[in-house]
Amino acid sequence: MTLDAILPAAEIPVVHPAAAEGVFTWLWLIIALPLAGAVVLLLGGALARGTLKSGMDKVGPWIGTATVAGSFLLSLTLFISLLGRGEEERQIGQHLFTWFEVGGLNVGMDLLYDPLAALFLLLITGVGSLIHLYSIGYMEHDDRRRRFFGYLNIFVAAMLVLVLGANYLVVFLGWEGVGLASYLLIGFWQHKHSAAAAAKKAFVINRVGDIGLSLAVALMFTTFGTTDFAAISEQTGGASQTTLNLLGLLLLLAACGKSAQVPLQSWLLDAMEGPTPVSALIHAATMVTAGVYLVVRSNFIYELTPVAQTAVVIVATVTLLWGAILGCAKDDIKKALAGSTMSQIGYMMLAAGLGVAGYPFAIFHLLTHGFFKANMFLGAGSVMHGMNDDVDMRHYGDLRKYMPVTFLTFAMGYLAIIGFPGFSGFWSKDKIIETALADSWIVGLCALAGAGITGFYMTRLMLMTFFGDDSRWEKGVHPHESPKVMTVPLIVLAALSVLGGVLLLGDFVVEFLAPVTGHAPHHEPPLPAIVITLMVVGVVALGVAAAWFLVGEKEIPREAPTEVSFATRAARADLYGDAINDALVVSPGRSLATGLASFDRFGVDGVIEGGSAGVGAISGALRRVQNGFVRSYALSLLGGALLVVLALLAVNLT
Amino acid sequence: MTFWILAPIMVAAALGILFVRKAVHAALLLAVVMMGLAVLYAVLEAPFLFAVQIIVYTGAILMLFLFVLMLVGVDASDSVVETIKGQRALATILGLILGLVLVTGLSQVTLGTAVGLEEANTGGNIEQLANILFSRYVFAFEATSALLITAAVGAMVLAHRERLTPKATQASMAAQRMRDYAESGKHLGPLAAPGVYARHNAVDTPALLPDGTPSESSVSRVLAARGVVRSAPALADDIDEVQRQLGHDPATQDVPVEEDPR
Amino acid sequence: MTQYVVLSAILFTIGCIGVLTRRNAIVVFMCIELMLNACNLALVAFAKQHGNLDGQIAAFFVMVVAAAEVVIGLAIIMTIFRTRRSASVDDASLLKY
Questions:
Q1: How far, CA to CA in Å, does B190 sit from each of A163, B177, B193?
Q2: Do β-strands B207-208 and A105-113 pair in parallel, antiparallel, or remain unpaired?
Q3: What stretch of H or E contains A213?
Q4: Which of A121, B141, B157, B167 could form a disulfide with A75 if both were Cys (CB 3.0 to 4.6 A apart)?
Q5: A627, B98: Cβ pair inside 8 Å?
Q6: Residue A435: which of A349, A515, A545 has the closest Cα?
Q7: Gap from A620 CA to chain B (nearest CA, Å)
Q8: Weakest-pLDDT range from A16-25, A321-330, A437-446, A621-630
Q9: Smallest Cα–Cα separation from A520: which of A358, A392, A351, A336?
């Protein structure tokens, strides 16, 4: 029995893109620009020699930034054009070419531009170009920066393919592309063993998630005969409940891998080995949000599988608390921010799992998170730049005097993330907690608790970094403000962190996304909205106060103390996530591989070689029958003849 | 009746072939068996085969065996010890089983009264045999004759000894004789006819060569091996004694002169 | 009539054992001849039994073929003897492992 019988069909919006015309015919250019940039930067650098090469190295970063900026301008143009259209005409599709046709599956390189894609495009290209600009300053002293920008461009191109895809296979193409770019960028400083290991870890864990997506695509093909969003959104009503449940769970697995949700979360903190712009762009604003994009995009499936939706909600709730607890005990500023990212994406997934009511808020929080997290990561990069690339917060202190711009912009991001009233994060997180409480008490309370813990660890971070005194500094550091090319993006992002809440004005974001996510029936929250808001603010204030007393008032030891509570030790050990992975997967996998190898060597080879050795031994024994004496042979002849005679007699007598 | 006399003899002879040490004895025992068979053929109204068995089988084939035995070595005798492990035991056991099976199987069969060859032998056994041979079995007959020719040619080829060294010419043989005389004093020319140097008729008396030494080649080496050859001085004494008895003086006379019968 | 066939069987068996037991090549050959003769006896006995001369003709042919065989066999034995100076069947045992 499908939910068709219960809900009217109009609840789930069907994707039916109109053909691209006018300015929308330039949709492909948005992807092509960074792609061309990547080709030029990577191949051109490989082929160029001498003065051309050094010229490329100097100009390369600017080329890389220019391509992404160009994509941003184009995205902005398309967005404005989209706003000019009526609500019914906001889905535009563009068919580029037929990718492949095999058996019954015809897959085209099709692009889909609708409100969801439009918002993502702006986020990716906008925040992306700001981070590119920042990187020009950050990577100034690195010899391989041209290559860095090439990889960044690959990433942007792949991410754009992911969000613009009109069928699951194009999304998969982008999915794999961002995985590749993430690997290349995390391990950018190849000479560092830890970076190479982290890149491998990220890629392998992502692969586990990719299995989910591959299986989902296969299942879609067998069930619906196609992977197009348009076709599937029409046909979801006709599939069996088990198939829909499976699809939802498989897509959830994929999202867990890419968005670092439990159980595939252990790669995110290690991914901080990459340069800070990489952490900002990929592991805060864009790639890790691809999982949320996938869930929201597949709403036509999720709306019909309460089972999968519940699974999403559970995973998200666990993750938002997991990430928050991790963030409390980390002394590495980037790892603390990474834990925070994990937690915030948990909020987004929670909203996405809550159904039609939550999708727009998930996307809203995704956008605001993109602003303030990128802001804070770039700020952290600026701090590291001034402190000789030291990441340990125990060596920071009183930096607000020496890096005022960094401090102010970081503070804006901080206030946004804890949900200070009026900032962007306040609006988005509040809405999510409201929707969660409307759905279930436990989930809502967990989200509320998460908000409090967020307040705690972010305040701890701020206090350790920017307040206090310079007594904990390393010898010889001269903290200074970063150059303009780095501070300008910080200022822009800080402004967005402050003003991002404007998207909620007049329920803009909800209405804008309605053609994609559908209209939510109006649910009365269990408590009045203002009460919920006050509760959230209160809990956050508790968290801030706790941090103030436990961290701000006390002396911060320079070396991490070893006599700590179990909770701290657990949080320092990533809540034993790595240990669990090791015990459940890595060790059995290694034993299995060793076992299979020995089975192959001793079992299979043993059988083959043993068989041949056995035959050799038998033949070695049997050959002694050939002793060369005629009389022995004659004896065997006689024996044989006797047998024949006896057989004949036996036959004749019976 | 004849059968019951001959059968034990034949079986005994056959068993003898198994146990005798010298090969010549085995051949002779086989001759006994074949003769017995010939007589049995005669009893079984096959006179032609009776004759052929004696003439061809015993007379030709067995003789061939004896010739080859002579060429190979009459003295050669098998040692009693069996070299291949278990061969003798197994062979005896298997053979006995075979014999037992055959004999019991055959004795179970009742053949009924024999038809006899009265009718088949009308006009003579040989004539009837010829009739069948040259009518029904003429092809086999011709093939067999071809076989015999092939066998003869084959035997010639096999027994042929290819000359590996060039044949010694008269000149080289003479030169070789010269060399031998120079090295070892071996007698140069042809030997004298028998009896020229003989002093006595007895085989154990050596002949004396012109220089008075006894010729070793005049006495059989068998006697020499047994050590019963008479020495020449003892012979000379004998002759002197006889001459004395006859009235001749051995010191004055060398050669006994034959009295003129007149 | 049965007695002749039984005698033939006994002679055949003795011939068999002889072939397997004796070491002198010529004596082995003689035992083979003994076997052939035993078969001849059986053939002639059955000729009388069935009143048919075919058995005697068969015996005749066996004799001829045996003659040819003896010729060649002895020539071979002699040739081997010339090169190897041994008439024992056990000495020609090079075709072994």
A1: 128, 10, 9
A2: unpaired
A3: helix A193-224
A4: A121
A5: no
A6: A349
A7: 20
A8: A16-25
A9: A358
**β-bridge pairing B214-215 and B207-208:** antiparallel
The mean-pLDDT minimum among A64-68, A96-100, B229-233 falls in B229-233
Hey, are the CB atoms on C93 and A631 less than 8 Å from each other?
no
The C-alpha angle with vertex B215 and arms to B213 and B220, in degrees rounded to 5, equals 145
Hey, are the CB atoms on A638 and B95 less than 8 Å from each other? yes
B93 touches chain A (CB under 8 A): no
Report cis status (omega within 30 of 0) of the bond before A8: no
* A chain contacts of residue C92, beta-carbon cutoff 8 Å: 630
Which chain A residue lies closest to B91 (C-alpha atoms)?
A: A635
Helix, strand or coil, per DSSP, at residue A12: coil
Q: In the predicted model, is pLDDT for residue A21 greater than 70?
A: yes
A645–B94 CB contact, under 8 Å: no
Structure tokens at A141: 């002293």
Dihedral sign for Cα A88, A94, A99, A103, please.
positive
B87, A627: Cβ pair inside 8 Å?
A: no
Question: Structure pTM?
Answer: 0.66
pLDDT tens digit sequence for B104-146: 888 888 877 878 778 777 888 899 899 899 999 999 999 999 9
| Amino acid in the structure at residue A258 | K
What values do phi and psi take at A100, rounded to 5? Answer: -155, 160
Instruction: Flag whether residue C62 sits within 8 Å of chain B, measured between CB atoms.
Output: no
Nearest CA in chain B to C74: B68
CB of A645 within 8 Å of a chain C CB? The answer is: no
| Chain B residues within 8 A of A631 when measuring between CB atoms | 84, 87, 91
* Contacts of A577-583 spanning 24+ positions with Cβ under 8 A: A577/A262, A577/A265, A577/A266, A577/A322, A578/A266, A581/A266
Q: What is the ipTM of this complex?
A: 0.92
Nearest Cα residue to A331 out of A541, A555, A568, A554: A568
Residue of C76, C62, C53, C55 whose CA lies nearest to C34: C62
pLDDT digits (tens, 9 = 90+) for B71-87: 887 766 666 677 777 88
Q: Is A636 on the interface with B (CB under 8 A)?
A: no
Q: A462 pairs with which residues across the strands?
A: none
Percent of chain A with pLDDT over 70: 98
Distance from C-alpha of A198 to C-alpha of A591, rounded to nearest angstrom: 22
Output the six-digit token pair for A199.
Answer: 């890149």
Which of B82, B101, B103, B106 is the best mutation test for A, with the most CBs of A within 10 A?
Answer: B101
Contact B11 C10 (CB under 8 A): yes
Closest residue in C to A629 (Cα) is C93
